Amino acid sequence: MISAISWVPRGVSKPVPSVADPPTKEEIDELIKTGALERSGDGESEDGDGEMDVETPKKDDQISQALEVAKALGKASKVTESGTKFDDITDGLRELDMEHYDDEEDGIDPFSSGLGDLYYPSNDMDPYLKDKDDDEESEDSDDMTINPTDSVIVCARNEDDVSQLEIWLYVESEDGESNVYVHHDVIISSFPLCTAWLDCPLKGGDKGNFIAVGLMDEPSIEIWDLDIIDEVQPCVVLGGIAEMKKKKGKKASIKYKEGSHRDSVLGLAWNKFYRNVLASASADKQVKIWDVATGKCTITMEHHTDKVQAVAWNHFAHQVLLSGSFDHSVVLKDGRASSHSGYKWTVTADVESLAWDPHTEHSFVVSLEDGTVKGFDIRAATSSSTSESKPSFTLHAHDKAVCAISYNPSAPNLLATGSTDKMVKLWDVSNNQPSCISSRNPKAGAVFSVSFSEDNPFLLAIGGSKGTLEVWDTSYDAAVAQRFGSYIKKSRTTPGS
């Protein structure tokens, strides 16, 4: 399944990403310590009863660890599939009979002109191999190159207990044809729940190209460098477990890093104005503000009574933060008035997602588990944090939970919704009177994430339970073209579109 999607701005990615250095022994030991790699034998009973050959466990450990490292590097072969034993590798090597390789009879192919056709000191001297190598290298180079006009999409994906970040390219040719494919992926330690792209220069320079990831059953936030291939560890980890002690017959004792969440991270929001600031929402009922440059939590807020599902920064007032919770509430906090308790809106079900209107400072929408979407105008809020403000509109959008919403960054009042009913819908919410202008089943399964592109604003990325990224060019929808045609024309004449 694809649980979250983030667009990377055009021209930010390196044309050819760097390849990570192989992990050092210390890094592998750290991966094992944190549980990213597990040594064979961890499932043994604590009592350690039973007899076994002394040498066999050592071989098991070495091979299992090697396979796990290969898997973490993204280079594991089919022999790592579930149920495969290291004996299969041994059998394969035995079948090759490498020990008697040199005993084979030398001979010359009767159909050749002699040994000269069979052997060259190097591939560079073999005319057949040289041409083939040049062609393959050229194709590989083209496939790995990210052009300034390519759109990059990061998908948080899980399949067969393998969690990863997939970096997709959406490429448009001169004749208007489009192609979507995976450029590379990053193996991560746990099921990804949410992502947020950020450009804070964590490794020096003016800007970077990073993705922050919130994880299931993990209190930490991992930040990965998208310009590096085959990386094993994130470049920054916010919070997490400092130490875990297991005692026989007792519950494990957990010591958290200073400022860390205590449960899964469910939502993330990067502040584009204060570029080192990241907000996080957690199942521990807390909202935290992080300085990613220092790796420290600067503010912890505890204004919800249940899991916090989503956070969103205002596009105009950059210190204003919304948070939505399973306690059926949305809370606004303004960093410019830190002593104020904030404003609170009560809703009818668990909050699934939040979105500020990018075209006005005062409006936001919230999607709910009961299939509805509500719009609010913060100007109608009273000074009392306990008062209830009526929504600007209530939209019965889907038959099931509305997991994702996204405003079009170019066309005002164009809103996309995605639901576990497998449908994606487009709405015109002008004058607080929403009307559905288009809908489709993108064949993504239950839809968990939808997101309009900033650079190509009528491209809508869709991810769901089937695990395949779908990109809908909504500009070719007749109803969209009829209502928002002027914005479509403008987006197509914008440089780089």
UniProtKB/TrEMBL annotation:
Quick one: signal sequence residues?
A: none
GO CC, any one term = nucleus
Q: Please list the residue ranges that the record marks as compositionally biased, kind Acidic residues.
A: 43-54, 133-143
Enumerate the SUPFAM superfamilies for this protein: WD40 repeat-like
Per UniProt, which keywords does this protein have?
A: Phosphoprotein, Repeat, WD repeat
Q: Where are the WD repeats?
A: 258-300, 395-437
Protein's GO biological process: rRNA processing
Anaphase-promoting complex subunit 4-like WD40 domain location is 258-314
Q: Which InterPro entries match?
A: Apc4-like_WD40_dom, PWP1, WD40/YVTN_repeat-like_dom_sf, WD40_PAC1, WD40_repeat_CS, WD40_repeat_dom_sf, WD40_rpt
- What segment(s) does the record annotate as region Disordered? 1-61, 103-147
Spans of biased composition, class Basic and acidic residues?
23-32
This protein's name: Anaphase-promoting complex subunit 4-like WD40 domain-containing protein
Q: Which organism is it from?
A: Prunus persica
